[in-house]
Known about the structure:
elongated; 35% strand; seven-stranded antiparallel sheet; 4 domains; four-stranded mixed sheet; 22 strands; alpha+beta
Amino acid sequence: MVKKVIDIIPPQNWSAGQASGEPELRYSREELPQSAVLPEEAGHESLPESKPRITFAVPKAGFAAGAAKLPDAGGGFFKGLFLKLAIAAAVIMAAMYGLDVKFAKAVIKVWPETSILHQEVKVAVDPSIGAVDKNKNAVPGFAISVEKTVNGESPVAGRKSAQGKAFGTVKLFNNYTAAQRLVKGTRLQAPLEKFQPALAKDETPWFRTAEDIVLNPKSSSVVKVVADFSGEKYNIEPSVFSVPGLVGTAQYTFIYGQSFEKFAGGSQDSAPEVKKEDLENAKIAIAEIAKEEIKKELEAKVKQQGLEIADQSVEKFEIGEPAITAKTGDSIAKIGGQILAKASIVAYKKTDLDNLGREFVLGKVPAGNTANLDSLEIKSSYAGIDAASGRPSLALAAQVMIYSGMSGNDLKKGLSEKSANEARIFLMNQPGTKETEIQLSPPWRFNIPRDLNRIEVQMILD
């Protein structure tokens, strides 16, 4: 390691400096450079003794403990601090630049003036063409047909009386000593409490025998009986019967009857009965059922093929004569029958109609205006049969919101690299602009990015 040497003029009293505690300066001849050799040794004249030139070595860091250090001027601390601050500022600026390059973005919100453009046109559905004809305002038509045998039935309105008298069997007993003859129609009377609900004033609790019968003494015999009146109240539970015709005679207490099963057949209802009008009504009703069924089949087939038909569009139906087996006088509740039904209609593709309506209304957008495609609405309704062509036609209505000013992409090009203030002036100078808002990021960015992909234009349409 090269040692540093300093040429100085030593003080007059060198030993006094050592005594004062100042650093000891040591030097040797071997350490002196050639220029520091004494003149007399080099063969030159001796210099004045009062100005000797000597060289001495600066003490190393390893001074003895307690040795004094050389004074510091103080400039190194501030130079180091300045350097650190400069480095930190450079790092921060580099980071901001990197973030700006990666996340630079501008969101431009524009509130333009808006209006609704509405257009209507009559469109023909033509089965003879294979593609949309914009010149004739026509879309391709598709003939759809179905055929089906339909089963249907119609209720019977005719009625007939179904009133019935209760009937059953009674076992008659003769405990008298003489025989007793009971003619057909002999009255047998049951207790009043057996009739539920109770009998009316004009009703009697009588049942009559259905045949002649002779009861020998101490014998019994079974006979059929029928109620005097119709109604469910005569369907009585098992009961004991008296013979009213024997009242006042000795036989009255010895001759009586006994039933062992509930009577049946008593009613006051009515039953259906097929009339001529029922047959005529059934033919009409079954034909209507067939029409509805075949219409559903037709609509299902249209939908299955991805087609559309307009509401109230004309459908052609062919409904045959219903085959009915019922006849007048039949006691049935419903008349059933079969019928052959056919139907056809001209359908269209909704996409064809939408495309035609789209092109029609967008072709009417005034110059300098832009259409908001999200607001596009296309509606159609059946307009009847065209008199000239004989084909079905539709009334097509299309509307879209429009606004004045440049398109979003053109705005991006015009805004690229402009400052926020310049961008605001540029936007407000566009025709029809009501209000604008500019959002830049990162926060320290003051101009619109150059990259158009980093510019987002939002048209606020209201």
